[in-house]
């Protein structure tokens, strides 16, 4: 990833790191190569490489041009080079001895007479014309796709690249087979009034031109540094014990990911130590079938037909069982290796939060603090209620005592009533009541 401030302005000068497009991050231009021969001293000026590498459309296309004027150019300079019936404007990506290594990599000869030349340093007028023609590219893509659809051609126009002077347009297309676009070229030439060049590319080249972010979280390899595309098949995934899932193994281009080949050689070297022809071994319980090979622990996992359990076996044990099978002997047990670890198993919680098993300590701390405050508040309320109840009872007792002191006659009658009260209350209950008639007679006699 490069610096975000190196975007080139209309004047041709970068805004950010001021390194004129030559920062080591390579973010100013795609598919950059680091010039590690930049500080190499020059012994002979006649043997200096007179070819420079120029990139177009932010590095999606690069080509070599001969610098006949011997004018010194730095990485990131905008220059005008020979084009088709005109000129084109590109950005210098490499200069010096590193260019010879790049030419050798791409099988380009330095003394090739057909190599085009560098004309001059790009002027403001050249850059203005280039920007005007570049603005026509999005509209040209939409219109060219509509024309191809009208002609019922089985092809997809991926990108249109205009030459800086607007005299030529290169149409990049994708097609499964051969396409007869002779009529299409005539229509394009009349529609856009340019010289048309059709160039077929693959799905991976299209992804490299468009760019994007891969499943790993980084920019696509084909749009940053990968220039040579190698074939990728499902055997690479099988060697690495990856499940054959087309969705997970496919990249943005719809093909198998190029990164499947990165570690393939390491796996192939590690698998050389494993025995061959051991896909099926025989034991007393039946045939054991090979499921996978673990190159990190040097184990081979087998399964039996009567269960879904997988048994890890060491390489020595598999070789021994295979030797016994060749002698017609079937061992009783597989004798799997104990692969249990000493790491303590975490106890699963009884309830699972909706956000997962993530512990939000900040919320838990706030909730705990809130509960403590509520408990303290309830405790203070109970203490306040108890104190208020005691004060009320004390006030009632004081009021009663004050009323007794203010009414002495009532107190005296209460004391006299207490003195006249019989000592034995059951005594009156044992005495029989007199007859009603005798009592009445006696009262009448007294009255007389």
Summarize the structure.
With 448 residues, the protein is α+β, with helices and mostly antiparallel strands. The chain has helices at 98-105, 124-134, 137-150, 182-192, 203-210, 221-224, 234-239, 246-249, 264-271, 315-326, 361-406, 408-420, 426-430, 436-447, and strands at residues 51-56, 61-66, 78-82, 87-94, 118-121, 156-162, 168-174, 195-200, 280-283, 286-294, 299-303, 310-314. The strands form three sheets. Strands 2-1-4-3-5 form a five-stranded antiparallel beta sheet. A four-stranded antiparallel beta sheet has the order 9-10-11-12, covered by helices on one side.
Verbal overview:
- With 448 residues, the chain is an alpha+beta fold.
- 36% of the residues lie in helices and 16% in strands.
- The protein contains 14 helices and 12 strands.
- The chain has helices spanning 98-105, 124-134, 137-150, 182-192, 203-210, 221-224, 234-239, 246-249, 264-271, 315-326, 361-406, 408-420, 426-430, 436-447, and strands at 51-56, 61-66, 78-82, 87-94, 118-121, 156-162, 168-174, 195-200, 280-283, 286-294, 299-303, 310-314.
- Strand 1 and strand 2 form a beta hairpin.
- Helix 3 (137-150) packs across helix 4 (182-192).
- It is extended, with a radius of gyration of 49 Å.
